[in-house]
Amino acid sequence: DIQMTQSPSSLSASVGDRVTITCRASQGIRNDLGWFQQKPGKAPKRLIYAASSLQSGVPSRFSGSGSGTEFTLTISSLQPEDFATYYCLQHNSYPRTFGQGTKVEIK
Amino acid sequence: EVQLVESGGGLVKPGGSLRLSCAASGFTFRDAWMTWVRQAPGKGLEWVGRIKSKTDGGTTDYAALVKGRFTISRDDSQSTLYLQMNSLQTEDTAVYYCTTDLGGTWGQGILVTVSS
Q1: d(CA A62, CA A49)
Q2: Residue B101 confidence (pLDDT) above 90
Q3: In chain B, what is the straight-line distance between the N-terminal and C-terminal CA atoms, in Å?
Q4: What are the residues facing B19 on neighbouring strands?
Q5: Nearest CB to B47: which of A38, A43, A98?
Q6: Mean pLDDT computed over every residue of chain B
């Protein structure tokens, strides 16, 4: 199985900060990766697909990069509505696997 | 509007069975690969399994923890996805989500509680 190691597990940041979250795959997954945002009590929402493509309707302050084994989600200027938990998901092989999640909290 | 609505959750005793349904609308369900994902209370997301479209063979893949106990199926005439869960264990307690493959669309989730 491919392991997805996500870091950090949590972070505290202020509105306007630039935030970076990383996922590392235990083996190469090309660009078969998505990023998701989940708010408490709600279903996850996809932000990024194919590692770097922005989902329709998602603000442009979100961006994804990477290929192979290392991937990054960046929020260029954190907004109040961005405080949530973020997950990566690899869909290169089965079983598909999520990262452990990164909780973004208000500093 | 693309929509997925889960139903069928609830409280079940260890060793029991439950079938979840996911009603799809707003897209061509028969062409879609569909997935189940779960989330135990206070925990992260866990991929459960996937079913391909019948055009692509209709085959299934499962996570190791549920293989042999859970079965995913689909009724394209009703645009409905199913998750049959047998031999349920307390560790299966979670909110279960149906999603289009790769997670583009999610249902609201349904709670399954396994407890005596």
Answers
A1: 12
A2: no
A3: 40
A4: B84
A5: A98
A6: 97
